[in-house]
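Supplementary Methods. Inverse-folding protocol.

Structures were first reduced to a discrete structure-token string of length 339. This string, shown here, constituted the complete conditioning input.
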């Protein structure tokens, strides 16, 4: 068989479908392999370009295949879909992956390390627990309102719930206390995860340098490291900010460009953390006498606070890229005093 130039792999849980083609795009091989046979088969192939969709399990397989000497690329699924011809099946998907990867202007996803995947898993677990805790709080508010109790908003009211349970049915009070106990359990789990994230952050030099940026703490710094790594695959800070959806959407027709709201592409969790950090900085902007404080006050005079928050989040993302890609840490203006 002619030596393949590109091998596209459609990942699955138990079965993997391969499509190989030469540098002219001529198909050479179509084969389905089990999980146990994938790596031995690729080990017998000469070094070539191996391409997969950036989906579940892709980072593990990419690292394993890289160790065999192949050049591995990950293609975002939305860039593969336009190349799917006729009816969809696994071999057609593998061929579409090859076609997408052969485009000279194709954008590839970065391969994450195990440490980055660990940070991402911790953040996703914390995010899920926070959402579950919010659901429990909303459930308590709704149930108590049905019995004529308007519970104040916030965590403090949940903690002193016993003061609102007088003259309520005994069975209902028992149910409310079970939900309150579940709330406290979730709070303990969230605190434990946050402590683990902070410990990992303190041991990571890049994360410690990121925390010198105003508005970025251990949670946001670890999320940036888990998403971007050393940021070397981004050409500029603007490209990194654009990958997080912190730049305006553009709609142009008839030679008339129009800028809309932010695109909201990429990692929504990291984007929210950056915007929340930006709002924390804005609350104390009057206590800053550096150039960042001057810029915030000047922009706040002519733009809505939501626009200012997104603009500051964009600036924070660009500074984070510079720190990761070029080293160093954030340095305020000489002689500045900060809150």
């Amino acid at each position: 068989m002619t030596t393949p130039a590109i091998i596209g792999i459609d990942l699955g849980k138990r079965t993997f479908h391969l499509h190989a083609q030469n540098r002219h795009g001529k198909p050479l091989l179509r084969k389905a392999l089990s999980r146990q046979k994938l790596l031995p088969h690729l080990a017998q192939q000469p070094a070539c370009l191996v391409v997969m969709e950036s989906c579940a399990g892709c980072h593990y397989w990419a690292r394993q295949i890289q160790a065999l000497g192949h050049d591995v690329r990950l293609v975002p699924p939305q860039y593969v879909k336009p190349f799917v011809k006729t009816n969809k099946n696994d071999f057609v998907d593998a061929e579409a992956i090859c076609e997408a990867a052969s485009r000279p202007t194709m954008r590839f996803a970065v391969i994450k390390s195990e440490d980055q995947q660990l940070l991402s898993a911790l953040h996703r677990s914390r995010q899920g627990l926070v959402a579950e805790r919010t659901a429990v709080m909303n459930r308590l508010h709704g149930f108590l309102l049905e019995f004529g109790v308007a519970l104040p908003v916030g965590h403090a009211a949940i903690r002193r719930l016993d003061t609102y349970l007088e003259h309520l049915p005994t069975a209902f009070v028992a149910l409310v206390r079970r939900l309150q106990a579940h709330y406290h359990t979730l709070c303990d789990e969230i605190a434990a995860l946050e402590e683990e994230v902070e410990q990992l952050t303190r041991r990571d030099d890049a994360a410690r340098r990121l925390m010198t940026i105003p508005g970025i703490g251990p949670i946001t710094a670890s999320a940036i490291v888990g998403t971007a790594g050393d940021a070397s695959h981004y050409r500029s800070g603007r490209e990194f900010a654009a990958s997080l959806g912190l730049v305006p959407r553009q709609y142009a027709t008839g030679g008339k460009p129009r800028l809309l709201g932010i695109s909201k592409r990429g990692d929504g969790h990291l984007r929210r953390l950056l915007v929340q950090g930006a709002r924390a900085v804005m609350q104390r902007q009057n206590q800053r006498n550096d150039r960042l404080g001057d810029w915030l006050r000047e922009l706040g005079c002519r733009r809505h606070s939501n626009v200012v928050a997104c603009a500051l989040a964009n600036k924070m993302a660009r500074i984070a890229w510079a720190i990761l890609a070029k080293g160093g840490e954030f340095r305020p203006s000489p002689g500045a005093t900060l809150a």
